[in-house]
Amino acid sequence: MKVALFGGTGFVGSYIVKELIKQGYIPKVLVRPGSEKKLVHSEKCEIVSGDIFNKNSINEVINDVDATIYNIGIIRQFKRQGITYEKLHFQGAKNCIDIAKQNGVNKFILMSANGVKLNGTGYQTFKFQAEKYLRASVLNWTIFQPSVIFGDSSGLMEFCSQLKKDMLNLPFPAPLFFDGIIPLNAGKFSMSPVHVSDVAKCFVNAISNDKSNFQTYQLGGSKDYNWKEIISIISKSYGKNKWAIPAPVLPIKLIALLLDQFPWFPISRDQLIMLLEGNTCNSEKAYKDFQLQPKDFSSDNLSYLKNS
Question: Which of 80, 94, 127, 142 lies in disulfide reach of 116, CB 3.0 to 4.6 Å?
């Protein structure tokens, strides 16, 4: 069986490619010209060169496959470069949904995110719109909404590695963000970190699992952790004991409003807003339907940070 995959060269996509191959599928992957070397196990994939805005390229990928996975996403947009949430989270997904329907490829699996909503940040809003569009289609859809995803990224962008690089490696205490002026809840917002291999297994298992049709699954780990706990666990995983102090988020939001258009600035305003909202979920249904035991967010499973 062949599976069309959009977003196969990034962090999560590389794990989906490996899991597809492990389970006997042939990944048929759309790859932007010049990015061929980013695709793992490329010799076991069918590669279509093109981009997500070229409908002919999309049609070539989706032609003669048994299922479609849409995994394209960005955590920050750069409008001046034409990299926007609307284009990549919604319009690209819409193009693939339409062409899958035209080609009679009924199974469609969408990467969304925990906490999406209509009137949220740009990230949340356009992922919500993609979900809405897919649910209104005639396809056998499955939507996954992960919390923060961790795991060895082999140098690609990943939550824990990025946090280590942008905050924990700096010669300053780690920030315990809080809203307002009184730090009573500093660093108390929580997340449900989920291992990337568990996410990949859920995506691939959903292809042939009829229980997953017309289902939306939240994906998180077995336990929730607040921000202060996350900083401590990540730091200890590579032999550090990081100090942390309360940090009001308002001044950082104001600076980000001016500077988050530049890739070198470590965090965007949207990311700060979503961070303080928290990112927890209940994933019992997903792990029951796919018969998986989630990996713990622990030093053992974060050992890759020693070399990042």
Answer: 127
Q: Are both 67 and 204 inside the same structural domain? A: yes
95 & 105 share domain: yes
- Total number of domains in the chain: 2
149 phi-psi bin (left φ>0, alpha ψ -120 to 50, beta other): beta
Contact 169, 242 (CB under 8 A): no
Cβ neighbourhood burial of 93 (10 Å; 0-12, 13-18, 19+): buried
Do strands 67-70 and 107-111 pair parallel, antiparallel, or not at all (unpaired)? parallel
pLDDT tens digits along 78-124: 988 889 999 999 999 999 999 999 999 999 999 999 999 999 999 99
- Are 175 and 256 contained in the same domain? yes
> Which amino acid belongs to residue 59?
N
Taking only the tens place, the pLDDT of each residue in 156-194 is 889 999 999 988 998 889 999 999 888 989 999 999 999
- Specify the pLDDT at position 141: 98
Q: What is d(CA 92, CA 184) in angstroms, rounded to the nearest whole number?
A: 42
| Whether the predicted model's global pTM rises above the 0.90 cut | yes
Residue 306 lies in a domain: no
Give me the domain span that covers residue 231: 159-189+225-277
φ, ψ (nearest 5 deg) of residue 110: -115, 130
Residue corresponding to tokens 């909202």: 277
The three-state secondary structure class of 262 is coil
Greatest alpha-carbon pair distance for the chain in Å reads 59
Buried b (16+ CB within 10 A) or exposed e, 39-63: bbebeebbbbebebeeeebbbbbbe
Please choose, from the candidates 37, 71, 79, 33, the residue with its C-alpha nearest in 3D space to the C-alpha of residue 54.
33
